[in-house]
Amino acid sequence: MDDLYRDYILDHYKRPRNFGELDPHDLEALEHNPLCGDELGVHILVKDDQIEDLRFHGHGCAISQAAASIASEELKGMKLAEVGELGADWMIDLLGIPVSATRRKCALLNLKVVRGAVTGDHAWPT
Amino acid sequence: MDDLYRDYILDHYKRPRNFGELDPHDLEALEHNPLCGDELGVHILVKDDQIEDLRFHGHGCAISQAAASIASEELKGMKLAEVGELGADWMIDLLGIPVSATRRKCALLNLKVVRGAVTGDHAWPT
Amino acid sequence: MPPVAESTLSVRADFPILQRRPNGRPLIYLDSAATSQKPEAVIAAIADHLREHNANVHRGVYALAQEADAAFEGARTRIAAFVNADPLTTIFTKNVTEAINLIAYSWGRANVHEGDAVLVTQAEHHANLVPWQVLCRERGATLRYLEVDEHGGLSLDALDRELERGDVRLVAFAHVSNVLGTINPIAEIAGRARAAGALTVIDGAQGVPQLPVDVAAIGADFYAWTGHKALGPTGIGVLHGRREVLERMEPFLTGGDMIASVDFDGATWGELPSKFEAGTQPIAEAVGLAAAVDYLAALGMERVREHEQALTARMLEGLAAVPGLRVVGPLDAAARGGLASFTIEGLHPHDVAELCDREGVCIRAGHHCAQPLMRCLGVGATARASIGVYNEQADIDALVHALQSARGVFGLDGSRNGAAA
Amino acid sequence: MPPVAESTLSVRADFPILQRRPNGRPLIYLDSAATSQKPEAVIAAIADHLREHNANVHRGVYALAQEADAAFEGARTRIAAFVNADPLTTIFTKNVTEAINLIAYSWGRANVHEGDAVLVTQAEHHANLVPWQVLCRERGATLRYLEVDEHGGLSLDALDRELERGDVRLVAFAHVSNVLGTINPIAEIAGRARAAGALTVIDGAQGVPQLPVDVAAIGADFYAWTGHKALGPTGIGVLHGRREVLERMEPFLTGGDMIASVDFDGATWGELPSKFEAGTQPIAEAVGLAAAVDYLAALGMERVREHEQALTARMLEGLAAVPGLRVVGPLDAAARGGLASFTIEGLHPHDVAELCDREGVCIRAGHHCAQPLMRCLGVGATARASIGVYNEQADIDALVHALQSARGVFGLDGSRNGAAA
Ligand SMILES: Cc1ncc(COP(=O)(O)O)c(C=O)c1O
Ligand SMILES: Cc1ncc(COP(=O)(O)O)c(C=O)c1O
C-alpha cells in the first residue's frame, strides 16, 4: 500500500467533502500556496460563536485537497475560539500520513485559510 | 642586482627630472591610478606643434615616478602628432624593466596623462 | 517534421551526482531548467582555485593576487568568448535576476518616463516581468503584454503593431521560455525593436545552456544569463550590454572597485565593466563558470543542441502516449528547447512530481515563476521535465514509465478501486 | 597596556593554500582584511554539496531538492545563530556592498527626504559611503561626516551634537575600520542614534571575522557582513535587519521566489526573508559559509580575538622598530582589530608590497577603498598587513624582516649608493 496516497486520501481528493461556496456567509478568506500557485478559499457560517457550516473552494494537489476535506468534517461545530488554537500538529495528525517538509504547506494551507478567516492571522500554522 | 628596482629606476624616483609645475602652460591633464589612488598631472608648453617643455606633478610609486621622469626626457621636443601615436610598448621599453600585469598601470599612468592632455583621449594606452 | 539525428553525447559519467543511487536506483535528473548539475571539471576548478589561487582581485601587488586576477579576468574572457561577446561589456552579477534589475534600475529609471511603455510577453519568468512592473509603476509608464498564441509562439505582426504605437521604450523577452519551451526569434525581434527605437533585453537563462548563442549576431542591447543553469555554480550571472548604452548609464550598485575616485562630495565612476561591479565579485564562481563554458565548448554547442532536440523529440513522443496528458507549447522539437511542461487529467502536478520521485525521476511542479502565463494557459500549475547534456534516452523512458505508474497509483488506469471517481 | 595572552591557536595546517611554497618559501598571507583564506572544511563542504546534494531550492518536490533545501535553510540557521540573529531576518546578498545598497535603495529612497541628513564617519569603506552619497544626491538630503580623531577614534560627543540637530535619519559606520583598525563602540552608537530616532547601519565586514558578534545585543537596525572575509566563499553576503523595519520596506531586487503572487497588473511580496531574496540564491555559497562559521565557532570567537590581539600587539611592536614607519589608527592592540596600515618614509606603499612579496609576504597597498580617509590622513595610500586565524608569530616576524629588507633595496639603510638622496 502507498504510504502517502492511501485509499482514504485519494477518496477525499476525488470526492472532497464540503467543497463549493456558501452564500451568504459570515467569514471568508483566500490564500495561495506560493510554492505552486495553488489557491484555496473558505466560506464560513457562524452561529453561537461556533462554525455552523463551511465550504472550501479552489484547486490543489491530493494532499491539500484531502486535508481540506478531512478537516472540514472536524471544523463543523467547532468553537471559533478553538479554531484559533489549532496548530500544525492537529492537521498533520488528522491527515495520518507522513508529510515531507516540502509538502507541509500543501497539508497546512486549509488550516491557514480557516484561521485567517476566523482570527485574521494569516501566518502559516506552526 | 634587483630586476625591478635598478639603480637608474631608483635614481629617477629619488631625483625625478621635469617635476613641478609650469605656469603658464598650454595643455594640462590630471589622472588617477584607480588601483592605488596615485595622482599624476602634467603641464605642457607647446611651440610649433611640438612639446617645448613639460612638468609632471603628483605622487606615486617608484615605477610610476621613474616612468614619468624617464619619459619626460623623451617627450620634450616631440611632435604632438607623434605623442598621439605612442603606445604602451614605447613606455615599457623605455623603462627597461619587467613590469607585471598589476604594476602596468603604474608604468603607464604618465603616458595616459600626457596623451590625455595632448589628444583628449583619456583611455589607458594599449 | 524533419528527421532528428540521434544524440551522440554520452557524458553522464562526468557528473558525480549522477553516480548517486537513491534507494538503489539510478538518479534520473530531469530538472535542468531549474538548475543544472555540475561536471567534475567545474567542481574541481572551484576547489582548486580556493586551494591554490585564492586572493582578492584588482588591487593586489603580490604574486598570489596576480594569479587570482589572471584567473578572474581570464574567466571573464573565456565566458565572453563562449557567446561571442566583448569582455569589456560582460558584467558579472549574482544571477540573471540581478542582471535584469540592474537594467531596470539604471537604464529604466533614467529613460522610461510617464506615458512611455515597456513591452514584455505573457510568457515571461517573474525575473523578466516583476522588475518591469515595478519600474512602470514608479515611472508612470505602462507595461504591455505581447500575446502568446496557442502553440506558444509570438506574433511578429502583433509586435509590429505594438511598436507602431510609438511609445515603446524597451522590449523584454526570453530567448527560450522556461515553461513553453518556445525558442523565440530573438534576432528578428531585436531588429524590429531597434528599428522602432526601442531597446531590447533578452533573458537568456534557458538559451545559453542549450543553444549556440552569438551575442554580437543577435544584436540586442542586453543579453543576460545565469551561471547555475549552464553547468556553472550558483552565485553568478552574466550581463552583456551594448557598449554605448552601458557607457551612458549610471551605475547600479555602488561601493568599492567601481569608482574612479571618491571624495567627501561625491564620486566618479570607473571604466567598463568595473563601473557595474561593486564590491568583491564572485571570483571562485567566475572560475567555475569559465570551466563550465569550456566544458560546453568542448562538447560543442551544436552537438548539445542536437542531443537535446533528439531527447526532446523522444520525450514528446513518450508523453503523447500517456492518457490525459497535455503538453503546453510547440509540439515540434525543432521549435523548442529541451523541456516539456504538461498536465495530466486527474493528477495534480505536485502529485505527479512526488510519484515520479518514487522512481528516482526528478521533475518540477508548480507555476515555474510564470504565474501570468499559467493564467493564460488556464492552469494553476504544470509538471515540467527538462533535459541537460547528461541525460540519456533511458532517462526519458524512465519518466514516461513513472508517469504511467503515477496514473496507476491514482487509479486512473482502472487498476484501483478509486478509479470509479 | 594590559598584558596580552599568548595565542593558543595553531591552525595553519587546516588551510591548503598555506601549504604552498612559492619560490621555495612559506606563503605568509597577511591580507585577510581583503579576503580570508579558506579551511579545507569549507572547500570540502562546497564540493560535497555540488557532488551530492545540488538542486534548486524552495520549490522542488523530489528528495534531492529537499536535501538542497535543508542544506540551504540549515545554513541560514547556523549562520544566523553564529551572530545571535534571527534566521527570519537574515538575508543573503552577494556581498556586504549589495547589502548596504539594498538598505539605501529600499529603505533610503522611501524614508530619506529633502532636508534630511545621513551621517557616516570619515573612515568608511566606499561600500558604506558611496551608496549614501548617491542616495542623498537623489533625495536632496545632506551627507555629513563624523570626524575621526588622530588616534582613529570617533567622538561620542560629536555624535550627540550631530544627532541633536534633529535631521539625521540614518547613521552608518563600520564595526571595525579596514584601514585604521579601530573597533568602534557600536552598541553605544546604535543606542544613541536610536534614542534620537535615527536608524543605524553597521558595516560588519571586518567585525564578524575577528570578534564575537551578538547582533541582538548590539541593537542596530541593520548589521551587514560578507562571507569571503569570514573564511567563507565569494558570492555571498549577509544582512541582518530589524524585523519591523524589514517588514515595512519595499523589496529591492524583484523576480522569482520573492513574491506571494503575480498577475498582469502587479505582484504581492513574499514573507521574510524571501521578500529580499530574488532569484536563485548563492546556495553552495551558503553551505560553504555555514561550514566557515561552524569552523570559527569550534575555535571559539573569544579565542580568535585573543589570538589576533596577541599577534597585533607583536606586529605593532615590530613595526615600531622600522625606521620611518608610521602606523595609522590606535596604537593599543586592545582597541583595534588584527590589522595595521602604515607608511614608510621614502618608500611608496606599492613598492613596499612588491618588495614584501619577494620574501613571500602578502600585504596590500593602496587606498583600501577609503579615499576620503586617505585625504584626512594626508596620504595617497598606505601599506596594510592584516591577520587571520591561520597566522602565527613567525609570519609577523617575516613581515618585519621584509620591511627592513625593502628599506635596504631603496638604500634607506645607507647600504646602497642611492642612499644619498
Ligand atoms: C569595512 C569594509 N566594508 C566593506 C567592504 C566590502 O566588502 P565586499 O567587497 O565583500 O562587499 C570591505 C572589504 O572590502 C571592508 O573592509
Ligand atoms: C527564463 C528564466 N528567466 C530567469 C530565471 C531566473 O534565473 P535566476 O534565478 O538564476 O536569476 C529563470 C530560472 O529560474 C528562467 O528560467
Short structural summary:
The complex is a heterotetramer, with two copies of chain A (126 residues) and two copies of chain C (421 residues). Chain A has 126 residues and is of the alpha+beta class. Helices cover 41% and strands 21% of the residues of chain A.
Index terms:
heterotetramer; A: 126 residues; alpha+beta; Sufe protein. Chain: A; 5 helices; 41% helix; C: 421 residues; alpha/beta; Aspartate Aminotransferase, domain 1; Aspartate Aminotransferase, domain 2; 2 domains; 7-stranded mixed beta sheet; 13 helices; 38% helix
In terms of topology, how is this protein built?
The complex is a heterotetramer, with two copies of chain A (126 residues) and two copies of chain C (421 residues).
Chain A: H1 7-14, E1 27-33, E2 38-47, E3 50-59, H2 62-75, H3 80-85, H4 88-95, H5 104-119
Chain C: E1 28-29, H1 40-53, H2 63-82, E2 90-93, H3 96-111, E3 117-121, H4 130-139, E4 142-146, H5 156-164, E5 168-174, H6 186-195, E6 199-203, H7 215-218, E7 222-226, E8 237-241, H8 243-248, E9 259-263, E10 266-269, H9 283-299, H10 301-320, E11 325-328, E12 339-344, H11 349-358, E13 361-362, E14 364-366, H12 371-377, E15 382-386, H13 393-409
Parallel strand pairs in C: 1-13, 3-4, 3-5, 5-6, 6-7
Antiparallel strand pairs in C: 2-8, 7-8, 9-10, 11-12, 12-15, 14-15
The structure holds pyridoxal-5'-phosphate (2 copies).
